[in-house]
Amino acid sequence: MSLAERARRGLLVQDERLTLQEIVALEQPIDAKARKRLAAAMKTAKALGDLKTTVDVAQINYVMTNPDPRIRCRNLDGTPARRSATFTTIWVNREDYRIWRATLPDDWFSPVSAIGKWLDIPPSKTEGLTDSEIKARLEAGQSIAQIQRETRTPKSRIQKVKQRNNLPDAKPGPQAR
Fold first, then answer.
1. 30-43 burial by CB neighbour count: b if 16+ within 10 A, else e?
2. Along the 177 residues of the chain, how does pLDDT read in single tens digits?
3. Which helix (H) or strand (E) holds 91?
4. Distance CA 153, CA 175 (A)
5. Distant-in-sequence, close-in-space partners of 113: CB < 8 Å, separation ≥ 6
6. Are 57 and 86 in contact (CB under 8 A)?
7. Residue 155 and residue 163: Cα distance in Å, rounded?
8. Fewest C-beta atoms under 10 Å: which of 48, 92, 113, 161?
């Protein structure tokens, strides 16, 4: 899944670390020059030890082949053409990046930056009330808005419980405000 799609769906919160390229793309989604400047600053900070990173190195060994059986891929000495490729990925932890980012001036960051979808962890998605607790509050005469304010339970969930149990609207009075 692409980085933009993961950001749109809110899945970046699950990632404790992102690659250097992903962070730069989230910080500067529009300006290519600003992306290069930020990437260079991050690499410099990594080299100086100001930004802690983790480096993963993967090496792939393979033998060159050709789908045409008449053509053989061989070295000059006649041995099979063995090759290897090395891939390096630089990972940055969320907290380490947050600390380093605080040292930079505000004009380094785009106003349309999507990095907040990774840095700003939203409140827990677990709802505090069970359906039976919501039902009891509604039967006691509390309004949907009041339950939502007090418990941070989503309004849609409270309305579903109300519809499922065929509960009437809150009665006007001191608790229904």
1. eeeebbeebbebbe
2. 888 888 888 888 888 999 999 999 999 988 899 999 999 999 999 999 999 999 999 988 887 777 777 776 777 777 777 888 899 999 999 999 999 999 988 888 888 888 888 887 655 544 568 888 888 999 998 888 888 888 878 888 888 888 888 888 765 555 544
3. strand 82-93
4. 18
5. 26, 27, 28, 29
6. yes
7. 12
8. 48
Phi (first) and psi of residue 170, to 5 degrees: -60, 140
Contacts 24+ apart (CB under 8 A), 9-12: 10/117, 10/122, 12/117, 12/118
CA 69 from centroid of its chain's CA atoms: 47
3-state secondary structure (DSSP) of residue 133: helix
Q: How far apart are CA 71 and CA 103, in angstroms?
A: 58
